[in-house]
Amino acid sequence: MLNKMKLWKAFNKEGLNKNECLSEQFNDSQIPHHVAIIMDGNGRWAKQRHLPRIAGHHEGMKVVRKIATLASRLGVKVLTLYAFSTENWKRPKHEVEYLMKLPEEFLGSFLPELQAHNIRVEMMGHKEQIPSYTQRAISKAMEETKDNDGLVLNFALNYGSRDEIMWAVRNIVKDAKNGIINEDDVTENVFSQYLMTKDYKDPDLMIRTSGELRLSNFMLWQLAYTEFIFTDVLWPDFSEEDFLNALNEYQNRSRRFGGLKSEEQNE
Ligand code: FPP
């Protein structure tokens, strides 16, 4: 079992390679392979400080850097972050524009650091509708990090799960019409291959910040057996310690995937 205090001390220990330090504390099998986060509460964080909402998004961007590098050091393989949903276009124009500029700012400032951590940048969502400068920044980061084999930092941008599922169905119907697939071939595994997450395992852990208790059209298919952690902390306040706490809570969960624990099998 992960010892949180030990881990936290190791994380803060100066003069030691943090990677080595952390890997000593962890049993790899206990680290979630894929963590998904709904980064919520930027607006409320700003409001509490009498700042415009975009100040919260900017602060939230800095937290992305902190949590991505920590997740990478801990050995998480995929970190999917809900950065902009298909429904977020309904927000005021200036807020949408600001959110669309954040990937450029984030990658402009932090790409060298992501490279140093062997992080690969990816995006899921419909690229066509996002501004060309956002597309360019993301494509450049994806290209420059494509050979990195550490953490995949997967931004869900202009992403909506119902939309994703609908496109999967459409493409399956198209492939069926073209004789590429038969009705009997459409298993859960094959269906998953038509989703934007086809290259990743389903998330083991989903964290939503800010106290809201809903999924907001995020990875509805993929989260079927994921462990959920909801925290009241607003995303701009979400700290490395909060992330470690979430991992600790995750490791204390009993995952049965609809079955029983092995010791219960014969009861
Ligand atoms: C939800 O909070 C947050 C978003 C819609 C945007 C999330 C984006 C970031 C954290 C920055 C992303 C950074 C990069 C690098 C792309 P909210 O605005 O709904 O907050 P509220 O519920 O308090 O109003």
TrEMBL record:
Cofactor (UniProt): Mg(2+)
Residues that coordinate or bind substrate: 41-45, 53, 57, 85-87, 89, 91, 208, 214-216
Keyword Membrane listed: no
GO CC annotation: cytosol
Cofactor note: Binds 2 magnesium ions per subunit.
Keyword Transferase in annotation: yes
One Pfam family in the UniProt entry: Prenyltransf
Listed PROSITE patterns: UPP_SYNTHASE (PS01066)
PANTHER family with a match to the protein in the record: DEHYDRODOLICHYL DIPHOSPHATE SYNTHASE 2, DEHYDRODOLICHYL DIPHOSPHATE SYNTHASE FAMILY MEMBER
Quaternary organization: Homodimer.
Protein name: Isoprenyl transferase
Organism: Heyndrickxia ginsengihumi
